[in-house]
């Protein structure tokens, strides 16, 4: 039974948090199965197979982050989910900086990372308000 501090199963916060978790898992799986395509979607062009291990590591870490998000939504308090999402906002901000400063990024990549950060930030702040 869920306690009253947990997110209700039917709420915009729950749905958006789950969407974020599943999206991160999907992106991680893409990196594991198709490392170079994942890198292109991220905003970087990787042509050498020398980077494959790093791309796979990124994929595994994305999958783990998504699973943690889903576990928090299912079992933790609304505040815990919000604080986790707020702290994880660092990731898309860092991604946007990496893509913007390394050049050769598709035009959509930096805005995609910035929008992701903003969605996570706004969602977490809305969840933290009383």
Which keywords apply here?
single chain; 130 residues; mainly alpha; 75% helix; elongated
Tell me the layout of helices and strands.
Blueprint (H helix, E strand, L loop, with lengths): L11 H22 L1 H8 L9 H24 L2 H11 L1 H13 L6 H20 L2
What are the secondary-structure elements, in order, as H or E? Answer: HHHHHH
Q: If helices are DSSP runs of H or I spanning 4 or more residues, what is the number of helices?
A: 6
Based on CA inertia axes, which overall geometry fits?
A: elongated
Helical content (DSSP H or I, runs of 4+): over 70%
**Strand proportion:** under 5%
Number of separate strands: 0
- Report the major sheet: none
Mean pLDDT: 92
- First and last CA, distance: 24 Å
Can you walk through the features of this model?
By secondary structure, the protein is mainly alpha-helical. It is about 75% helix and about 0% strand. It contains six helices and no strands. The longest helix has 24 residues, at about 50-75. The model has no long low-confidence stretch (mean pLDDT about 90).
